[in-house]
Structure formats: C-alpha cells, structure tokens
Amino acid sequence: MKNMFLSFVFFCITFSGIGQEYQDYYIRGIHKMEQKKYGEAIQEFSLTLNKKPDFEEAYLKRGACYQLLTDYNKAIDDFSKVIEINSKNEIAFYNRGLVKKDLGNYKEAIEDFSNTLQINPEMKYAYYNRALIELRINDFNSACMDLSKAADLGVENAKEIYKYTCKQ
C-alpha cells in the first residue's frame, strides 16, 4: 500500500508540470507585448498555441501583435480563429472589425462591429467605429444613430462629431 501511495505521489510530482509549459510561453508573450517586442511576442504565442491549439487568449494576443505590426491578414486569421473557438468573443469581432476598417473592407467591418454589439450592447467604441465607417460611405442616418449611442456611452469624440454632423 505504501509503495502504491509513493508511486502515485511520484506520478503527480512528475506530471504536474505537463500543461504548465504553454502558460509559461503565454506569460512570456505578454511580457514581450508589454515591452513592445511584438515579433518576439508572436513567437511566444505561437509556441503557446503549438502546446494548446484551442487557447483563444493566445490567438487574441497574437492577432493584436500582428495588427500592431500591420500584418493584417494574419491578424484577421487569428481573430477569426478565436471566433471559430468561441462565437461569443466580442473582442475578437471588434478587433477584426478594426482591421477590416483599416483595410477598407467597410461592409465586413460593419458586420463585425454589429456582431460585437449583439454580444455586448455597451461596447461604446463599436458604435463609434461603425459610425465612422457609415459617415465614410454616406449613410448619415445610421451614423448619427451610432454616434448618439456612442456619445451616450461616454465617447467624447462621438459627441463632437454628432454635434457638427447630425441634425438635432
């Protein structure tokens, strides 16, 4: 009985570190992001994902690094992977919308911001960024509604743009 207990303890000690390795990579990736070493952060998040391929936070962080490095296609791929893993991840929809906005894919960006708002109707910058696109494509009625909502939620720039753009 004692040998069986010792074997169990040995097993627990030996294998308790398995699975921890991906977290170490992830934490190093976050530190690299904080240091603005985005390329190195991407490497750490990639190592994380090699160990734990369904870790949505690692995809989000790596996607953000790609976005900051203006590698927009890879950013979209990572944000899309998060949405594949968790279709209720508002941050992935929002960030993908920002990238698509930067690429000029306005219809797709509006769709992503709308999905963000379906998940979280209080996401004030989704209203604001959707409004900016709507202004660009001359959909003033929708833009004014979104600017009004963003302003109500506290986006100061939305208040200013609304004041000068929308009829009261």
Give a short summary of the structure.
By secondary structure, this protein is mainly alpha-helical.
Task: Describe this protein's structure.
With 168 residues, the protein is an all-alpha fold. It contains ten helices and no strands. Helix 3 (38-51) packs antiparallel against helix 4 and helix 9 (140-152) runs antiparallel to helix 10 (156-165). The radius of gyration is 21 Å and the shape is elongated.
Number of strands: 0
Shape: elongated
Through-space gap between termini: 82 Å
**Secondary-structure-derived class:** mainly alpha
Instruction: Tell me what portion of residues adopts beta-strand conformation.
Output: under 5%
The main β sheet shows up as: none
The parts where pLDDT drops under 50 for at least 5 residues are: 1-18
Helix percent reads over 70%
Q: How is this fold's topology laid out?
A:
Elements: H1 2-15, H2 20-34, H3 38-51, H4 56-68, H5 72-85, H6 90-103, H7 106-119, H8 124-136, H9 140-152, H10 156-165
Main attributes of the structure:
single chain, about 170 residues, mainly alpha, 10 helices, about 80% helix, disordered N terminus
